[in-house]
Amino acid sequence: MRNRALLAYVGPKESRLDRKLAEFRALAEVAGYRPAHLVVQFGDPDSRFYLGKGKLEEVARMDFDVFIAYHGLTPLQFYSLRRMLGVEVMDRVLLILRIFEKRAGSMESKLQIELASLKYRLPMVKEYLRRAKMGEQIGYMGAGEYAVDAYYRHMMSRISHIKRRLDKLRESRAVLMRKRKDFGIPEVVLTGYTSVGKTTLFNRLTSERKYVDGKPFATLDTYTRRISLWGKEIVLTDTIGFIEDLPPVLIESFYSTLQEVADADLILLLVDASDELDEFDRELQTSLEVLSTLGVYRERVLPVLSKVDKVSMLEVARKALVVRRYFDLFVPVSAVTGFGIDTLKLLLFWKTPGYAIYEARPPAGGLVLDGKSYLPVKISEVRRFEAIAFDLYTELRRVL
Ligand SMILES: Nc1nc2c(ncn2[C@@H]2O[C@H](COP(=O)(O)OP(=O)(O)OP(=O)(O)O)[C@@H](O)[C@H]2O)c(=O)[nH]1
Ligand SMILES: [Mg+2]
Q1: Same fold? 4-102, 184-348
Q2: Among 18, 145, 367, 385, which residue's CB has the most CB atoms within a 10 Å radius?
Q3: DSSP assignments along 58-92, one per residue
Q4: Backbone dihedral region of 165: left (phi > 0), alpha (psi from -120 to 50 degrees) or beta?
Q5: Which CATH homologous superfamily contains domain 184-348?
Q6: d(CA 352, CA 265)
Q7: Reduced to 3 states, what is the DSSP secondary structure of residue 139?
Q8: What are the start-end ranges of the H helices in the chain?
Q9: Burial category of 52 from C-beta neighbours within 10 Å (exposed 0-12, middle 13-18, buried 19 and up)
Q10: Distance (Å, rounded) from C-alpha 19 to C-alpha 298?
């Protein structure tokens, strides 16, 4: 198989570079490549070849089938590298798009990905066309000027066709969402960095068996399920994960689905409690940035510390301090052991609007939360229920 990849990074020396490169490598693997070489060069990327002259000569002697740059390449860089190296040239954006292409399930996400890919490749094709017009032998995908020109026009018409179809699909989804809102069913969405455990938690809360793995972008489609909490119906949605340095073209076309999701009543923001402290902080910040791009304000966000089974309580408390810089309230959970799930359910009940029930009875034998039993209580008023949820939460915070 011709899938040996050379991964190239040209940029500043930073403390978190190892992490970035590990994520880069994971992305390449998920896309189906075998990372054979990693070339790192500190400094500014070369405007023509991305790599500096010396490094480029070194690379030209290496054996690989595809060149993948960490940063987004300019049309000129694509063109020059391809001519120089004679292999397929990609960047991180195309890599992410390749993963999306492989994994997209629904018609809507397929169209969104194709749109993003067309938009991203358009300037490159333009560059080839410009050079062909100047009389250069371009050889884009083995084609001459006429074929590239035809391809360019095909891309343009495909873009407008996809846009129209997406508008229609979105309209029908918006109608569905308005209907749910009319019925007063609150909407809750799970968001957060890729691999934080959104789908695992979704499965736990809904008894679903959606696909989970430890690699980036396991989930691409938004899934929605209805759950019942002490008689109160809630619609829960699982979403695509965030990633650092998300290419704007992807935010634009793909995340418009998230935009609708962002209109939810409550947004659960998962952060992985088992990550190193600085990593944890970065993930929280990246997620908050994406959410603010989508126009989500913090009042509607409930932070969830995931995977707490992997670390000590002391460690969880350290992470909690970081979260408290941004939020007053948070809930630690483990979707694997079930720790904190009951508290999360109470908070979901408590923090979503449209209380429809005025009486809720805890299960016989009392309410069991995180392995502790609470006295059976009869709740005849929602306000009182809120107070209990709050007491339990305060108790948990005291323990932590
Ligand atoms: N120990 C532990 N592992 C967990 C927990 N939740 C999820 N995981 C693991 O973390 C990895 C990622 O889980 P997913 O649920 O796929 O994460 P996600 O946020 O949906 O990821 P994307 O869909 O890629 O954005 C998997 O290997 C899970 O088994 C948890 O509470 N504890
Ligand atoms: Mg997922």
Answers
A1: yes
A2: 385
A3: HHHTS--SEEEESSPPPHHHHHHHHHHH-SEEEEH
A4: alpha
A5: P-loop containing nucleotide triphosphate hydrolases (3.40.50.300)
A6: 6
A7: coil
A8: 17-30, 53-60, 75-85, 92-103, 107-133, 145-182, 198-206, 248-254, 256-261, 277-293, 313-324, 341-351, 382-399
A9: middle
A10: 28
Ion ligand 2, residues whose Cβ is below 5 A away: 198-199, 218-219
Atom 14 of ligand 1, nearest CA residue: 197
Domain positions in the chain: 4-102, 104-166, 184-348
Tell me how many degrees the CA angle 278-100-292 measures, rounded to the nearest 5.
45
The answer to whether 2 touches 67, Cβ cutoff 8 Å, is no
Write phi, then psi, for 251 (nearest 5 degrees).
-60, -45
- State the helix-helix crossing angle for 92-103 and 17-30, rounded to 10 degrees: 40
Token reading at 18: 């190892």
Q: Which ligand is nearest to the CA of 203?
A: 1
Pocket of ligand 1 (CB under 6 A): 194-200, 212-214, 216-219, 241, 306-307, 309-310, 334-336
> Within its chain, how far is the Cα of 286 from the centroid?
10
Pick left, alpha or beta for residue 27 (phi over 0 → left; psi -120 to 50 → alpha; otherwise beta): alpha
Q: CATH classification of 4-102 is 3.40.50.11060, yes or no?
A: yes
